[in-house]
Amino acid sequence: MMGMGEPLANYRNVLGAIRRMNDDLGIGARKITISTVGVVPNIKKLMEEDIQVRLALSLHCADDEERSALFPANRRYGGLDELMKTIREYIFTTNRRVTLEWALIENENDTPEVARQLGQLLQRFEIRRDMVHINVIPLNPTGGFKG
Q1: Please, are residues 118 and 77 in contact by the beta-carbon 8 Å criterion?
Q2: Most CB contacts within 10 A, which of 47, 74, 107, 125?
Q3: How far is Cα 97 from Cα 141, in angstroms, rounded to an integer?
Q4: 117 near 80, Cβ under 8 Å?
Q5: Its pTM surpasses 0.85
Q6: Are 7 and 14 in contact (CB under 8 A)?
Q7: SS (H, E, C) the chain
């Protein structure tokens, strides 16, 4: 679930919709992915739910300052450290792989150095390589960013 705002900011309604898709339409929960910018309290709630949806995190930056500039909500939820601790806990609790979304922004987050920073971030929080999938997304050029 993505595209119309932050799903985890509308937690109750999103979970209700997922349960209806699962129960009424027969769509398997593992075929449903919730994409979030990192609403930490609701990621913690999600890991306790009895539904096996997938989780995708719009990460895009491996540096706290850069991520806060891109996502002001990063600071509101404790920054990158709190987010990555929560992702590690989510993986441990659910035993489900998390997708990390990474939109390539030319000359911002598309360099080998930034890729190393991402690897170091995952290592620092002891997140197993087999429990994350990095989804590299070519960014379409916009007025604010080159593709």
Answers
A1: no
A2: 74
A3: 30
A4: no
A5: yes
A6: yes
A7: CCCCCCHHHHHHHHHHHHHHHHHCCCCCHHHCEEEECCCHHHHHHHCCCCCCCEEEEECCCCCHHHHHHHCCHHHHCCHHHHHHHHHHHHHHHHCCCEEEEEEECCCCCCCHHHHHHHHHHHHHCCCCHHHEEEEEEECCCCCCCCC
**Helical pair 112-124 and 79-94, crossing angle rounded to 10 deg:** 60
Distance CA(69)–CA(128), nearest Å, equals 27
Please report, in tens digits, the pLDDT of each residue of the chain (147 residues total): 555 689 999 999 999 999 999 999 999 999 999 999 999 999 999 999 999 999 999 999 999 999 999 889 999 999 999 999 999 999 999 999 999 999 998 888 999 999 999 999 999 999 999 999 999 998 877 766 665
In one-letter notation, the amino acid at residue 14 is V
Contact at 8 Å (CB) between 22 and 28?
A: yes
For residue 91 the two structure tokens come to: 């993986």
Cα separation of 145 and 147, whole Å? Answer: 6
